[in-house]
Each structure stands twice: as C-alpha cells, then as structure tokens.
Amino acid sequence: MPDKSGVAFLGLGHMGRPMALNLVRAGYRVAGFDVVPEALQWARAQGIPVAGSAVEALAGADVVLTMFPSGRHVLDAYVGGADGPGLLAEAPAGTMFLDCSTINVDEAREAARLAIEAGHRSVDAPVSGGVVGAEAGTLTFMAGGDGADFEAVRPLLEVMGKRVVHCGGHGAGQAAKICNNLILGVSMIAVSEAFVLGEKLGLTHQALFDVASAASGQCWALTTNCPVPGPVPTSPANRDYQPGFAAALMAKDLNLAVNALDSTGVAGQMGALAARIYDRFAAEGGAGRDFSAIITDIRDASGQHAARQQEPAAGENTGTEMPGRPGTTTAHDDGSPE
What we know:
Elements: E1 6-10, H1 16-25, E2 29-33, H2 37-46, H3 54-57, E3 63-66, H4 71-79, E4 80-81, E5 84-85, H5 87-90, E6 96-99, H6 105-117, E7 121-124, E8 127-128, H7 130-136, E9 139-144, H8 147-160, E10 161-168, H9 172-200, H10 205-212, H11 220-223, H12 247-264, H13 270-286, H14 294-310
Parallel strand pairs: 1-2, 1-3, 3-6, 6-7, 9-10
Antiparallel strand pairs: 4-5, 8-9
Helix pairs in contact: 1-7, 4-6, 9-12, 9-13, 9-14, 12-13
C-alpha cells in the first residue's frame, strides 16, 4: 500500500470527524462522506474534502474506512441494494476495507468474507478512547485480520491512535472490543454504586477516591472517567456528564457482548445485568449523557429506596426491626423480595 494512501472515510459522526481530520493533517488524501448533511458541513468547515456520495468517495482511494452505527449499516453499504451498487462492486480490485465500527463479531466476519470474495482486503479495527481520544489522536485500535493486511494499515491507524493491537484473525478486533467494554460497563456501575454508598456512609468523594485509586478497587472507570466531580478534573462528571462515551453507545456495546455470550454459551450474568441497566437508563433520558452519569440514576433510585424503607407498611411491626431485615421485607415492583 502506498505511503499516504487515499482514504474514503465514510461516517463522519462524533468519532469519525476528528479521526478523518487527523488523517488530513497527517497528509493523507481523504474524501469523506456521511448521509447526515450537518456532518458534511462540519467536515467542509474543518477542511476535510467531501464527496457527493459514498461511491464517489472511492475515486482514488486505496482504503475504504467505515465508521458506522451498526453491522447492518456496514453490510448494506458493502453489498448495496435497490438504491444503488455496493462499495465492494464499485471499488477497484485489491482495495483495503477497514471497518472501525463496533459491531457483532459474526457481522465483522461476514463483512470480511464478502470483501475477500469480491477481490479485496479486509481488517476490522474498532476503537476505544471516546471523542476525547479521537480528537487527541490517542485512540486504541483493536485489529482483526491477516498479519500482512494489519501491517499495511498500521501506519494509518497510528496517526489516529497511540496504541494499535493486532488481536488475531477476522473478527478478533470486535471480540476484543466487546470484551473490553463488558468490563468497562460493569466496572462503572460498581464504581458508581460504591460512591453512592460512600455518600450514605459519610465519606467524601475525595477520601474514597484516594483510597480506592491506590488499592484493589483501582480501575479506569475510577481513575480516568471518575463518575463524581472533583477527584479527576478531566472526567465528564465535571462538565455535567457531557460525553465522552454516551450511555446509548454503552448500552449498544453491552448488548453486543450479550449476543456474544449467548452465541458462545458463556454463562455470563453481570454483562447481561449491566446491559439491562444501561438500556433502561438510555430509554429514560440518559442516552445522550456520558455513561458515567449512571451514578445519577443510582443516586436517584437510592433516595427513593430510602424513602420506601422509612414508610412502614400498614400493619407492619415497627418496633426494633431494621429495614431490609426479616420482619420488614420489601417487595420490588416485580414482586420479588428485596
């Protein structure tokens, strides 16, 4: 692949825009496209050349980089349909198809199969690091594909990220991404629950952070994306939970992990629970907030829970029984005991 390859960059959303801009600044010949007009306006304003369609962006491109919301979008763009031909049919033979979307592992493997059967090359390389990492060029890329193809795209990925890991064959990048985000989603809920519990027990945020960040509770959700304002000044909690990494995207990634758990027969429970928690949070108004804003949901629910505990049920013995102990069992909305 020639140095400073031509890149058709398809998908100029919140992540794709700064990634494409970093490629332009590094001297790559970029032609961007997005179906959202506002995204194209932003790209033009920032100096990113844009094409009139995805197919037009292919002209002179050695690499087709896709950054789409779902696997269905990737596969539809590859094969085309009633609206026009697909990218695979229109691209010159031997084009590198580099998908940086986060999609199901099976979809990533299907995309690679289709690309290879059409005479092209394929690498899946989902990213971690959020919008801040995309803007700073410090993303982590988890790549899946043949070794030679990975080495061909490594220089391009290193422009957009500071860490590029070859995880294995086709689909391995997606596998690493969803495993990583399963850990992240579960750990953010645990960190948030701990801070709310600390509040109830009279701990300051800083005191808990100082202990946990240097003890066995240390994790990225605590030390980099801390869900309370103060201890980590750069965390979204200090800017009213503006993402960052939106809760809707965390819900999406956790559901991809659940799909993988189901398809492989892994008896995972925490990932499925975390997916349900983020699904509900996103559906009830949290979709556009940073995923660390889950702490506000836990705090609100904890206040309601405390109020319920302080209100004795009719006929309840209110002598010396403690809330939540035998004699004062409370029912959840689904009827299960607390």
